[in-house]
Design brief:
408 residues; alpha+beta; OB fold (Dihydrolipoamide Acetyltransferase, E2P); Dihydrolipoamide Transferase; Chloramphenicol Acetyltransferase
C-alpha cells in the first residue's frame, strides 16, 4: 500500500514552504517517524517525518516551493534496508557467472552520455558553450555542474568550422573569478520584504547616545563566578540592557506601542525581541514578560533562544508577538549603526562594541570603556522628546545599575 506524505499546516499565516533538504534519498528504506526531509517557511525550519515504514519515493525536488497540502513523496509498504555486505559486493563476483558488456559499449548506449544536468545546462548556456564540446565525467558520461564550471567560455560548437580569422584572446586575469548562484530562501525573501516595507511605510528616525560601561563591567568582574555557580549561566550585558529597557518602557509607554489601522495599541507588558544571527538569516525570538524576569532568568532565556536559532529549531510562537527589540551589532565589531524597526513594533535599540576612549569625568580626562547606543523609532507614534528621554533613561540605568534595584 502506498501512503502520500503531504506538506503539513505549519501556521495560520503560512501558505507555502520550500523543500530545503532531503535527509533520505529516493528508494531508501525509512522507519516510522524517521526524519526524511526539511521544510523551510518564511519564519522557521520544520522537519518532515515518515508516517509509516517502507520505501521512499520522492516527488518534489530540493528548492521546490510547495503549497500547504501538496504531496512531497510517497512511502511504499514493504521492502527493507539492503545489507551492507550485499550493497558493497564487488562487481567482479558477477563477472565470473556472466560476461559483462564492455564499459565503452555501455557508455555509448546510455542516454546520459553528453547530456548536461539541469544546473550544468544553465551554466553552459550562460557561457555560450555547446554541450557537445564538453566531456562529461558523471555517471555514464553525463555532464555535471563541475564540468560546466570548468568548461571554457566561448568554446566552439562541434559542428562549426574554424574560420581563417584568428582572434587574439584577452589577457588572462590573475586570481580566481568564479561566481555562484543560490536561490533566495523563503526566510531571506521575507526578511527582505519586511525591511523594505518598514522603510517605506514608517517615519523612521534614529537618535544616539553613549554609555559608560565601567559600572556594569565592575559588577560582572566581581560577581560573575558566584552568579554562574548559583544559576549555571553566565552574566552578560544583554540582561542589564533588557532590564534597563523594561524600566524605561514603563515610563515611556509610546515606545512600547504599535499602530493597528487607525488605532495605537499600548501594551502594559514587555515582550522583548532579541535579534540573533542564525545560519539561514536574521531571526528575532521573543523573551516573554521580560519586565518581570530576573537577570538570571533573562540570561537563561537568551542562551536557550540563541541555541534554538543556531539549530533552526525556533517555533513560530517563539518569534512572534514582541513589543520592543534589542539588537547587538557589537558582537561583530560594529561601532555605530541605525537599526531598522522590527514591524509592527515602533522602536528598536541597537547595542555596539565597547571601546576605551578619553572622556571628561568630574573635570578630568579619563579613559573609560564606552559604547554607542542607538534608538530607531517610528515618528508617527513616538515624538522626539520621548525618544531622546527614553534613551537617556536607559543610559542612566546602565551607568548606575543600582537604579535597577531601587527603581529610581
Amino acid at each position: 500500500m502506498s501512503l502520500e506524505i503531504k506538506v503539513p499546516p505549519v501556521g495560520e499565516s503560512i501558505s507555502e514552504v520550500t523543500l530545503s533538504n532531503w535527509i533520505k534519498k529516493d528508494g531508501d528504506y525509512v522507519e516510522m517517524d524517521e526524519i526524511i526531509a526539511e521544510l523551510e517557511s518564511d519564519k522557521a525550519t520544520f522537519e518532515l517525518t515518515a508516517e509509516q515504514a517502507g520505501t521512499l519515493k520522492t516527488i518534489a525536488k530540493e528548492g521546490d516551493v510547495l503549497p500547504i497540502g501538496a504531496v512531497v513523496c510517497t512511502i511504499e509498504e514493504g521492502g527493507a534496508a539492503k545489507p551492507k555486505a550485499e550493497s558493497e559486493k564487488p562487481k567482479a563476483e558477477s563477472a565470473d557467472s556472466k560476461p559483462a558488456a564492455p564499459a565503452a559499449e555501455k557508455t555509448a548506449d546510455s542516454y546520459a552520455k553528453g547530456t548536461p544536468s539541469p544546473a550544468a545546462a544553465k551554466i553552459l548556456a550562460e557561457k555560450g558553450v555547446d554541450p557537445a564540446a564538453v566531456k562529461g565525467t558523471g555517471i555514464d558520461g553525463r555532464i555535471t555542474k563541475e564540468d560546466a564550471n570548468n568548461a571554457q567560455a566561448g568554446a566552439k560548437k562541434a559542428s562549426e568550422k574554424v574560420t581563417q580569422v584568428v582572434l587574439t584572446p584577452p589577457p588572462p586575469v590573475a586570481g580566481a573569478r568564479n561566481e555562484r548562484r543560490e536561490k533566495l530562501s523563503s526566510l531571506r525573501k521575507t526578511i527582505a520584504k519586511r525591511l523594505v516595507t518598514v522603510k517605506n511605510e514608517t517615519a523612521m528616525l534614529t537618535t544616539f547616545n553613549e554609555v559608560d560601561m565601567q559600572p556594569i563591567m565592575d559588577i560582572r568582574a566581581k560577581y560573575k563566578e558566584k552568579f554562574k555557580d548559583k544559576y549555571q549561566v553566565g552574566l552578560g550585558f544583554m540582561s542589564f540592557f533588557t532590564k534597563a529597557v523594561c524600566e524605561a518602557l514603563k515610563e515611556f509607554p509610546a515606545v512600547n506601542a504599535r499602530i493597528e489601522g487607525d488605532e495605537i495599541v499600548y501594551s502594559d507588558f514587555a515582550d522583548v525581541s532579541i535579534a540573533v544571527s542564525a545560519p539561514k538569516g536574521l531571526v528575532v525570538p521573543v523573551i516573554r514578560n521580560a519586565d518581570s524576569k530576573s537577570l538570571a532568568e533573562i540570561e537563561k532565556a537568551v542562551v536557550e533562544l540563541a541555541g534554538k536559532a543556531r539549530d533552526n529549531k525556533l517555533t513560530i510562537e517563539e518569534m512572534t508577538g514582541g513589543t520592543f527589540t534589542i539588537t547587538n551589532g557589537g558582537v561583530f565589531g560594529s561601532m555605530m549603526s541605525t537599526p531598522i524597526i522590527n514591524a509592527p513594533q515602533s522602536a528598536i535599540l541597537g547595542m555596539h562594541n565597547i571601546v576605551e576612549r578619553p572622556v571628561a569625568l568630574n573635570g578630568q580626562v579619563v579613559i573609560r570603556p564606552m559604547m554607542y547606543i542607538a534608538l530607531s523609532y517610528d515618528h508617527r507614534i513616538i515624538d522626539g522628546r520621548e525618544s531622546v528621554s527614553f534613551l537617556v533613561r536607559v543610559k542612566q540605568l546602565l551607568e548606575d545599575p543600582t537604579r535597577l534595584l531601587l527603581g529610581v
